[in-house]
Amino acid sequence: MIEISHVDKWYSPSFQVLTDCTTSVAKGEVVVVCGPSGSGKSTLIKCVNALEPFQKGDISIDGIKVNDPKTDLPKLRSRVGMVFQHFELFPHLKIIDNLCLAQEKVLGRSHDKAVTKGMQLLDRVGLKEQAQKFPAQLSGGQQQRVAIARALAMDPIAMLFDEPTSALDPEMISEVLDVMVDLAHEGMTMMVVTHEMGFARKVANRVIFMDRGEIVEDAPKDDFFGKPRSDRAQKFLSKILSH
Amino acid sequence: MLGNFDFDVIRRALPYLFYEGMTFTLTLTGLAAFGGLVFGTALALMRLSGLKLLGRIAGVYVDFMRSLPLVLVIFWFYFLVPYIGQWLTGASRPISVGAFASSLITFIMFEAAYFSEIMRAGIQSISRGQPAAASALGLTYAQTMRYVVLPQAFRNMLPVLITQTIVLFQDTSLVYVLSITDFLGAASKVAQRDGRLVEMYLFAAVVYFTISCIASFGVRRLQARIAIIR
Known about the structure:
A: about 240 residues, alpha/beta, Rossmann fold, six-stranded mixed β-sheet, 10 strands, B: MetI-like fold, 8 helices, about 80% helix, MetI-like_sf (chain B)
């Protein structure tokens, strides 16, 4: 579904952010990307739907090359959902309108259809009653669930999560993770940048460990948590799992 | 001393002052603010487009307009537009452009320079995650601007935009150089005709002051409301 091959990205010759990254996410697979901050994991996931440009290599989604100038990027992006660290709901629009905007303007759905779909998804993330509120009136966890619903409203073929719980208060993390776990169990193709190793243990098929712009380890979940092959991954795991 | 003043001259001139003068002033202010905002937003988008040439053109335009006195621009424009029109259409003689059209175009072009700086600040005040989220949903650049960035930029900058419009409202009085009957022009004509300069100019000052003051007060109320919403 998502093919990443030999991707290099740099801001200047001396400032390399991604080095020869190669991996893939198969249909229905859940892949967790972890690593220390500054390791390039967020950059990598943003390259997948071309929110960040890259200089070398190829990325394709469902067979369509992201870095081909002829690719209709808006159309491709509309088929891939993305959830951001800071939610990025549109603060000037009501919750329901946040869910309807792209459905109507990009997919061309009628307003009624978009609202029906939107309400259905809000119900699913447990926020039907908040439909007429504005984002600022919701808690962080609620906002992030709305953001997930907003991405799902586009009927995506895959979902990208960029540290979806990093900006949340601890007591709100689980309500967001619950939604993500459900999604994974339903067979959604997911690429998730996160430090939530509990989530990785529960639903990930594979775990990718990145450090200094490189993919250091790319292993099935049990292998990764069992006995990581690289020193750096071992150190990282011992740091975040020690308490 | 006040006994020598004839305030009745104001009462008698009221219909003329407001129906002719103030109507003109408000129409010019409204249209120029709207046109300036549209054109100014376009300039701001050009400057932020990332396309070097486009940004340069907008930058030069803004700097140029901001380094000229408004009166001079009004004056020059009034005399130049007919010739520019002639040159553009290839007509055999200068195109006649009314004083109103000429002053309106001037104010739109002049205000656009100021509004563009305000809108630029407004657009830059939106976090980069907002356009990223919009593109991630599949919105095109134009849709992202139209539905996500500009509404927020406009709302954030509304108090400043209105303040600039109040300045514009006062500046429209400069059309007197074209002998147009705006509010101040009307007051001035009555003043000259009846020899009541002090009364008429005093009254004009009071009217400008009152309207601007009420508008400023409105801006402060608005600012408080926006602060709550955010």
